[in-house]
Amino acid sequence: MTNNLDTLATALYATADDLLKEHPDLAPWRPPVGIAPRLSDAELVTLAMMQAMLGFTSEAKWLRHARAHLRHLFPYLPQQPGYNKRLRKAARLLRGITRILATNTSVWSDDVWIVDSTPVECGRSRETVKRSDLAGWAQYGYCASHSRFFWGLRLHLICTLQGLPVAFALTGAKADERETLLAAEPDFLQSRPGQTLIGDKNYFGRAFEHELAEHGIQLLRPTRKGERQRPGTHLFKPLRQVIESINETLKGQLDLEQHRGRTPGGVIARVMQRILALTAAIWYNDHTGRNSLRSLTSYDH
Predict the structure, then answer these.
(1) Is residue 43 one of the residues assigned to a domain?
(2) Residue 146 clears pLDDT 90, i.e. is over it
(3) Between these two residues, 228 and 233, which has the higher pLDDT value?
(4) Number of domains in the chain
């Protein structure tokens, strides 16, 4: 089978349509009596994935492109306000589809995870900070990897070594990475004993490591100044490059920091679009036997 965006979109649509029939609770709530939407939820999921994959950060430009080039896939396309409202209400749907796709890959059961957080900038001017609906959630923070301050959020990711997102959370820029890791999906961590978790020097603390150990998770991280040498130190440099490359995929190819969200619901939906796009590509590459699961080259043009 040819790996291109149309085939990925067709496979995702068919899968999402079947999942929504099996799990109708995934769909956003609608009154039992009323006009059914002309764009189905499965089509909305597919349209959202394609927007992120093709790098359209403007919804208006994306819908103009879709009307000109994607009528063979989407006979009906809403106007920009309608698409925006549907997308903001579909964050739970996007998250549910993303999780099910991830569990249906061969790498979901990997026993080694890597964890890190990356900035999601939401504004640069002082006026934006004062007027934004994100004020109170978005905060000033510091990105050590790029030696810069920013105003916005942090995306916390747990991934397999192949780049598949298995858990994630979106928090303020100053949120403690350790607390976020434990609080994001506690039931999920408890259900996967025997995992090895690789993180950076920020994931430290006797109580933190003890709590992970109670969940059956072994933490590997670089040795901090003043500590005795920790096991596996020679492995960290190449594995740290893996998580940095995953973040670069989200930011460089999927335009994570150009999300253009202006409200909490808008930012969440746009971040979920990009995680869905990455997961869908890995899911499809896995099922079609590609060696490089995280390659987006066949789909991003």
Answers:
(1) no
(2) no
(3) 228
(4) 1
